[in-house]
């Protein structure tokens, strides 16, 4: 099974829509080891990685969180901000020092509602990212638990 390509913003959004989104960006930095968000917390922001690596994790009962995917430059960090009840479904940690663009989720949702073409473009981008993340999560969990199911 081949590894799917990351869904980078430059490959998905038109120059116009990317420019419109980026006009609302704020530059932020996360030190190595910083918790960016935790499952169950309010999803009020999202990020596009400029440099460094963030890891998405699934919290596991009575175990350390399970890493699902590493995200690098140009990749979206966070999709839960787009879907009510706006609560994180995964957790994220900076694995290296990370520079990122941060976006206020409420502002972007208002922009999406005001301009259907922009809203559709952002929705399709986030949808592609979400589909990839679900596939990555499934693959990672099969890697972790399938050997135990066969042995047991």
From TrEMBL:
<dbReference type="Pfam" id="PF00027">
    <property type="entry name" value="cNMP_binding"/>
</dbReference>
<dbReference type="InterPro" id="IPR000595">
    <property type="entry name" value="cNMP-bd_dom"/>
</dbReference>
<dbReference type="InterPro" id="IPR018490">
    <property type="entry name" value="cNMP-bd_dom_sf"/>
</dbReference>
<dbReference type="InterPro" id="IPR014710">
    <property type="entry name" value="RmlC-like_jellyroll"/>
</dbReference>
<feature type="domain" description="Cyclic nucleotide-binding">
    <location>
        <begin position="9"/>
        <end position="112"/>
    </location>
</feature>
<protein>
    <submittedName>
        <fullName>Cyclic nucleotide-binding domain-containing protein</fullName>
    </submittedName>
</protein>
<dbReference type="InterPro" id="IPR050397">
    <property type="entry name" value="Env_Response_Regulators"/>
</dbReference>
């Amino acid at each position: 099974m081949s590894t799917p390509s990351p869904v980078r913003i430059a490959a998905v959004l038109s120059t116009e829509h990317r420019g419109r989104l980026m006009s609302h960006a704020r530059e932020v930095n996360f030190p190595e080891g910083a918790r960016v968000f935790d499952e169950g917390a309010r999803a009020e922001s999202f990020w596009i990685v400029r440099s460094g690596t963030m890891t998405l994790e699934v919290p596991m009962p009575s175990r350390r969180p399970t890493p699902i995917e590493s995200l690098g430059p140009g990749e979206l960090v966070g999709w839960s901000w787009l879907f009510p009840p706006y609560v994180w479904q995964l957790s994220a940690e900076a694995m290296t020092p990370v520079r990122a663009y941060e976006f206020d989720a409420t502002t972007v949702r208002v922009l999406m509602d005001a301009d259907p073409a922009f809203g559709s473009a952002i929705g399709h981008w986030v949808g592609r990212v979400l589909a990839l993340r679900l596939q990555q999560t499934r693959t990672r969990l099969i890697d972790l638990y399938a050997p135990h199911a066969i042995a047991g």
